[in-house]
Write a sequence for this structure.
């Protein structure tokens, strides 16, 4: 159940639009409890959108920093990086072969 960032953004925008439509549709509803509920829902939506944007921005920045750090490490230690890549590749190939020959 993998979703791309664009899918998630689209889903959040759709949800926000539906909540705003609900708020507009209930604008004429009478009662203090209904009005208080509408205000709480609107505040919660605004908070969720703001915090979601902040979390997405933070995750994006952290992934860029991680990629930059990995790139710097590979450039600083190219032979070790090649050795690690070869070792992981060998492990994957051996695992795949073992799984293929030991099926039930």
């Amino acid at each position: 159940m993998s979703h791309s960032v664009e899918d998630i953004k689209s889903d959040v925008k759709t949800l926000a639009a539906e909540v705003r439509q609900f708020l507009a549709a209930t604008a004429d509803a009478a009662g203090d409890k209904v009005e208080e509920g509408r205000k709480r829902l609107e505040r919660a939506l605004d908070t969720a959108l703001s915090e979601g944007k902040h979390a997405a921005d933070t995750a994006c920045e952290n992934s860029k920093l991680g990629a930059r750090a990995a790139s710097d490490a590979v450039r600083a230690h190219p032979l070790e990086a090649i050795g690690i890549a070869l070792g992981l590749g060998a492990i994957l190939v051996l695992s795949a072969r073992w799984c293929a020959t030991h099926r039930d």
Summary: Residues 32-76 form the longest helix (45 residues). The CA atoms of residues 12 and 52 lie 9 Å apart. The mean pLDDT is 86. The chain is about 85% helix and 0% strand.
